């Protein structure tokens, strides 16, 4: 082996390997970022905003037979807001992981349902 290839292999072998990140890992839910309908300082606003998200992806580098695609849908409803300082929202999210071993290529292998409350508060220029 030429010395350059050995050096490159040694450099690459010292770097840690990382798993693939799904798109929703970079998705931040922050109802206070919605400035379409501003509220005055200290004013309470009920059901101020809502939103949703969805993703659909395929597993391309997986070598097992249980993962073919993933589907995820979610929504949030802001229950109340106090000015642009604080917010309480309800979240719901459902995720399907499926394989293609079916006549219609829909064979769910895992289904996850998540729900909860999200409290957001302004802290200076951040949240």
* Fraction in helix: under 10%
Q: What is the C-alpha radius of gyration, as a whole number of Å?
A: 22 Å
Largest sheet: 5 strands, antiparallel
Number of strands: 5
Low-pLDDT residue intervals, each spanning 5 or more residues: none
What is the secondary structure topology, with strand pairs?
Layout: H1 3-14, E1 44-46, E2 50-58, E3 69-82, E4 86-99, E5 107-121
Antiparallel strand pairs: 1-3, 2-3, 3-4, 4-5
Brief sketch in words of this structure:
This protein has 127 residues and is mainly beta. It has one helix at 3-14, and strands at 44-46, 50-58, 69-82, 86-99, 107-121.
Describe the structure.
- The termini are far apart.
- The mean pLDDT is 79.
- The protein has one helix spanning 3-14, and strands spanning 44-46, 50-58, 69-82, 86-99, 107-121.
- Strands 1, 2, 3, 4 and 5 form a five-stranded antiparallel beta sheet that branches.
- It is mainly beta and 127 residues long.
Key structural traits:
127 residues; flat; single chain; 5 strands; mainly beta
